[in-house]
Amino acid sequence: MPSPAPLETTTQRLADPATANRACQRCHQEIASEWRSSLHRQAHTDPHYQSQFKIEPFAFCTGCHAPEADPRKPVPKTISDLGVGCVTCHVSDDHVLASTTPSSAARPGAHHAVTRSAAFSTAAACANCHEFSFPRAGLRESRSGPLMMQSTVTEHAASAFADRSCAACHMPKVRGEDGRLHRDHRFLGGRDAAAVRRSVRASPSWDGKTFALSLEPGDVGHAFPTGDMLRRLKLTVSVIDSSGAEVDRYVRHLQRHFGFQHGATTAPRRVLIRDDRIGTTNAPVRVTYRPKTVPPGGSVRYDLTYERVVGPPDERGDVLVDGAISVVAGELALD
Ligand code: HEC
Ligand code: HEC
Ligand code: HEC
Ligand code: HEC
Ligand code: HEC
Asked: Which of 15, 93, 177, 184 has its CA 20 to 30 A from that of 310?
């Protein structure tokens, strides 16, 4: 199955991945133009990745973000431009891998043999890159095993959508210019406002003293947010008086909260303190807030925003926000 470059290799996986990838793009043009707009294509050129890599320049990172390169050497431009390419997911030991369901776009007479794989039709096609522990896990180990940097595959297996593949949601069938269906290779996810808004069902309430917001997973096959630790939900609750002025405000971040444990003789270890993302347990996430003052004729406003941040978000939450999507917002009268 598709994987990061193994760290013990002495060379890159394919002799000339850029040329091979160009050939795929020439014949599969629509899929190629979708892939060119995807984050997979940008996995190594992405300025956000490049700035984080400067802080932690590990071969481990290169193995996943430029999987066709030799991870221990500087990445040549042609390979950097490939990111996670066609060849990364589809070419294994000279076979072109495909799922067990032939695409309805199939024209007779493929110009190459295709190996149909049952595993490629499941989460296994994504698992080797979308689930992994922190590097130097020994330093950051929790009691229950290595501390995970991303755990989307485990979250998926525990979700209500465990029987739908990652591709079923992230590569929906779309109609091409020739009128036939193919799998969308834009790999939309956390930058797609419609997908983000479908991911949660929110029920707000006010009982005269306390505002409560109950959050349940919607059409999402893993925790929300999932993936990198640089994603979080920010809930802002404001109390507004009858003149429209804000008189009280409460902010809460829903995310994986990491910290450091200091031993007497050991180096500090990164540990997971709390995980209050949506969909990590069967119970809804319930946030409550009791305002200091309840102005007559006033209201309470709430806004839940999905944020991509730069640099590990901490408890205070004051980090640079790289992108944001408002997920749900509303207002309730206080009396
Ligand atoms: C000379 C043209 C050509 C080249 C080069 C080429 N393909 Fe294809 N490929 C085809 C044709 C034609 C088919 C038949 C199905 C279709 O029309 O999409 C096909 C079928 C496939 C399928 C199976 C589709 C199904 O039915 O599930 C996959 C996957 C695929 N190609 C991937 C690749 C990848 C990856 C590369 C580069 C390593 C590549 N192809 C290079 C022409 C080409
Ligand atoms: C070789 C490793 C690799 C494989 C295999 C892989 N991915 Fe990814 N994926 C990445 C990397 C790296 C990124 C981050 C790119 C970036 O933004 O820098 C990513 C990003 C994504 C994103 C965008 C996330 C966002 O923030 O919107 C989605 C969605 C995604 N992958 C889905 C999939 C699915 C579905 C599969 C399996 C069919 C898959 N990936 C297979 C490495 C991989
Ligand atoms: C991150 C992994 C990934 C990348 C990158 C990727 N593919 Fe795919 N592709 C898949 C998966 C997984 C499927 C099968 C989905 C299913 O049917 O379950 C697929 C399906 C296909 C199919 C057949 C299905 C169809 O609907 O037509 C073709 C052809 C194809 N890919 C070509 C390409 C080409 C060409 C590129 C590069 C421009 C590319 N892929 C890049 C993972 C990837
Ligand atoms: C039932 C549909 C569904 C399934 C199945 C699913 N996802 Fe998602 N995924 C979503 C939606 C909706 C979003 C946007 C909300 C979000 O950002 O979490 C998303 C977002 C993402 C992101 C962006 C990170 C983030 O949370 O911002 C990644 C990466 C991702 N999915 C990977 C995967 C992988 C890998 C699998 C399979 C193990 C998978 N997804 C299965 C629906 C699904
Ligand atoms: C095993 C594969 C893997 C390894 C190793 C890995 N990443 Fe990633 N990275 C991913 C995937 C998959 C995503 C997409 C998940 C998401 O969007 O939330 C991602 C997303 C990111 C993002 C967010 C990109 C954006 O535009 O929002 C940054 C930054 C990043 N990785 C930096 C790093 C750095 C630095 C390292 C090394 C310390 C590293 N990664 C190691 C797979 C990997």
From this structure: 184
